[in-house]
Amino acid sequence: MSIPVSTDVSALSDNPWRLSVAPMMDWSDRHCRFFHRLMSRHALLYTEMVTTGALIHGDVARHLRFNVEEHPVALQLGGSEPADLAQCAQLGEQWGYNEININCGCPSERVQRGAFGACLMNEPQLVADCVKAMVDVVRVPVTVKHRIGIDKTESYEFVRDFVGTVSEAGCNTFIVHARNAWLKGLSPKENREVPPLRYELVHRLKQDFEHLTICVNGGITTGDQVDGQLQALDGVMIGREAYHNPWWLASWDTDFFGQQPSDLTREQVELEMCDYMIREAVAHGTAFSAIARHMLGLRHGLPGSRRWRQVWSDHKLKGLSPHAVMALAHEPVLTAA
């Protein structure tokens, strides 16, 4: 059994940013993206952030390898040196990514020490220089993901001027996390929850920059919320809800891309992932647990889901084939049903 996956990017909507899955550190790796693509053929998928240093001085293949089924897929870069970002953008294009995104929204102290992420919003001209350097050497879109403000700076003018300056360098698409980033005193997790959501500022950006593609990220967990945002904006990016409740993606192509309803089942997705685990083990020596961790939310809300997760998470079963683990995992599921 094989679930059909679209690899023809030209067949997608004229607006590939209509609905996307966010870059999430330690989560949105290529295995997670393959899993998500099984359920939505059209959502845009982002890599976890890859730093320019990791590409320039590290294992390029390890960081940039992805499955052809993942298209459309965007590479998110972390960095602040225009020449380094240009070099890495070229690598991303050569490896086949459909978009290069620069991270101007991550508030972690580790990222701040590297002088990139959310702190770059304080230097819009530097970001513009970075964008210009990338735009000059690649043909794929160069986009920016950022916050609405930094620390206690809550004026709309701050984010408006940032977008205005950076757009002049050739960036036409901005993905806006509708919260401030507090660079001191909050953990990355708290930065996703504590600063208040201010969607109205993102809506104002679209009103002031009608020619730009403006997308929103942050706190969106339901289809009704997506519909509401799409009335005012060009796109919506979903983060942790897509990871913890991945079966939601199975309705996206119908609800947001106008496709016919699918008869896809959770069991088909799980079986396809078992096949994928075997291919990855043969090709790269990947342990199935490194892949299975991403699909633990597949049966979210169903009877027996807790026991199902426990089986797939049981390292004592690592000697079994993925298909055998699936069979064990479904014994309590069937009993509970």
Total strands: 9
Low-pLDDT parts are 1-12
The CATH H-level homologous superfamily of the largest domain:
Aldolase class I
Radius of gyration, CA atoms, in whole angstroms: 20 Å
N-to-C CA distance? 25 Å
Order of helices and strands: EHEEHHEHEHHEHEHHEHEHHHHHH
The CATH architecture of the largest domain is Alpha-Beta Barrel
- Level-1 CATH class name of the largest domain: Alpha Beta
Oligomer: single chain
Fraction of residues in helices?
Answer: 40-55%
SS element count, helices:
16
Q: The CATH topology of the largest domain, please?
A: TIM Barrel
Shape estimate = globular
The computed structural class is: alpha/beta
Strand portion: 5-15%
How would you describe the overall organization of this protein?
This protein is of the alpha/beta class and 337 residues long. The chain folds into 2 domains: 9-257, Aldolase class I (TIM Barrel); 266-336. The chain contains 16 helices and 9 strands. It has an 8-stranded parallel barrel, surrounded by 6 helices. β8 (213-217), α10 (223-230) and β9 (235-238) form a beta-alpha-beta unit. α4 (82-95) crosses α6 (124-135), α6 packs parallel to α7 (156-167) and α7 packs across α9. The longest helix is centred in the C-terminal third of the chain and has 19 residues, at 266-284. Mean pLDDT is 92; it is low at 1-12.
SSE diagram, text form:
Elements: E1 19-21, H1 30-39, E2 44-46, E3 50-51, H2 52-57, H3 60-64, E4 73-78, H4 82-95, E5 99-104, H5 109-113, H6 124-135, E6 142-150, H7 156-167, E7 173-181, H8 188-191, H9 199-208, E8 213-217, H10 223-230, E9 235-238, H11 240-244, H12 252-257, H13 266-284, H14 288-292, H15 305-313, H16 322-336
Parallel strand pairs: 1-2, 1-9, 2-4, 3-4, 4-5, 5-6, 6-7, 7-8, 8-9
